[in-house]
Amino acid sequence: MNLGNQPFGKHLASEVDVPLVANETAFEKARGVNRVEIRSGFASARIGGLSGDVQKERLKVLKPVYDSEISFDFLKFAADGMSFVVASEMREKLESVLRGLGVEFEVKGDRAVLSVHAVNMRDEEGLVAKVVSQVIESGANIEHLGEMHDRLLMLMGESGAAKAKAMLLAAYPEAES
Q: Are 124 and 174 in contact (CB under 8 A)?
C-alpha cells in the first residue's frame, strides 16, 4: 500500500482483513456465576469470652490445637475470641482439647461450604452483593464468608447449603454444579 507523502496516513482494514467479532478463546470462561458446589463434612468452632491480652489468650488456644494436629480453615478473629472450621472427624478431638483449656466454646456439626465461582467477580459491580443476598433469601444462615477474585466461600448448615445451591442454580442456569 502506498501512503504517498502522508507521514501519519492510515489504512483502514476491511471486514475481510479483520473480523468485527472476535471468537472467545477456548480457555476463557464467560463472566457471571459459572459454578456452584457444596463441600460438606465440617464442624465450626467458636471460642469466646477471652479477656485481658486477647492475642496471648488466642495463642493459648491455638497452640494446643496445633499440638493435637487439628487442621482448620476460615480462621476469623472476634473482639473476645475467634472461630474456625475443622473436618467433622476432628470434632470430638477439638472439643476435648477446648474442654481441657477451660475456655468458653461452641462447636456445631453438619456444616458445609458453599462455593460460588465467577470469573473476576470483584470486577462485576454488585455481583458479590447479589449472590450473598440470594443465599440469605434462600433461608441459609451464612456463618463465615470468604471471598477471592474468582469465588465466594460461605460456611453454613448442610441443609441451608442445599437450599442456597438450588436457588443459585435457578438464578444462574448457565452455572455448573
A: no
Within the chain, residue ranges assigned H as helices are 54-67, 91-101, 127-137, 158-171
Q: Which candidate, 20, 36, 21, 29, places its Cα nearest to that of 124?
A: 29
* Spatial separation of the C-alpha atoms in residues 95 and 75, rounded to whole Å: 17
**Cell output for 89:** 472427624
pLDDT digits (tens, 9 = 90+) for 130-149: 999 999 999 999 999 998 88
Domains of the chain: 34-40+111-171 (3.30.70.260), 41-109 (3.30.70.260)
Model's pTM, two decimal places? 0.77
The neighbouring-strand residues paired with 155 are: 113, 144
